[in-house]
């Protein structure tokens, strides 16, 4: 027996409301009272009503979906970022279409172009945004918000972390503990976050008489941190402290030290950046710069959805809109690995 197709009129009749009210309630519009919305959703679920997505998009010119294009999906940073974006989208009854491009500019361009017609707006993290014309040529004509993305001439709303100030603060913390020879494990060269963290480290070292810094390449993953840790131990004069440009590399470095029987922090201090969830659960717990990664994603998606609901056709150079820039300050979290006190220092957050 074939079950009859349930229409929006059936839902409206059962719920005792108009067809327009059903449409607004199921599409997440704000101008529907919450009791009415719940009643409509309950009836729709009981009747097993499923609106046709394509038809709904044609009638409303909305997909109820945001696109998210990231360099990678691997690692706790991206996991936390996606968690924040997803939570923000769900709170506004939107879906999320996710794509990554593994640091390849051609793949990112293809991923951006593929979003056309599928989403109402885009969240983008790109190390290529400062290349002349890259975003202008590849972003679909949609509202867009950039995350941790440098713009030579700000044209799109952006949310980013003050990586430079965070790196200076961490280096200053290690210097204040008496460490004078500090090694830095850098991130990938094209990455803007990595560039800013390296710049902050260099400036803090240069501003401190008697301090010296050495640098090792890294790729923001555990394996490159492990390789850097091995190289540090094989070098002639061992540094007193190591500052890794993110926590994943710091954890890889910590493992290299443990394999060699080098104690942290007794033999060498160690610090990271990001405060990923795992940072507090390793031994010794990791001193780091706390970036509220999920909050970064949540605030960015809120800005994007506000823009979409305001009816913006495009956010970019042609829109005439002034691009707003939101900078999140990272917070020093002192734990055992740097050789300081186990509890946070004055003015820092909880560990």
TrEMBL record:
This is LacI family transcriptional regulator. The keyword Transcription applies. InterPro entries: HTH_LacI, LacI/GalR-like_sensor, Lambda_DNA-bd_dom_sf, Peripla_BP_I. SUPFAM superfamilies: lambda repressor-like DNA-binding domains, Periplasmic binding protein-like I. PROSITE patterns: HTH_LACI_1 (PS00356), HTH_LACI_2 (PS50932). The keyword Transcription applies. GO terms for molecular function: DNA-binding transcription factor activity; transcription cis-regulatory region binding. Signal peptide: none annotated. Pfam families: LacI, Peripla_BP_3. SMART domains: HTH_LACI. Keywords: DNA-binding, Repressor, Transcription, Transcription regulation. Coiled coil: none annotated. Residues 6-60 form the HTH lacI-type domain.
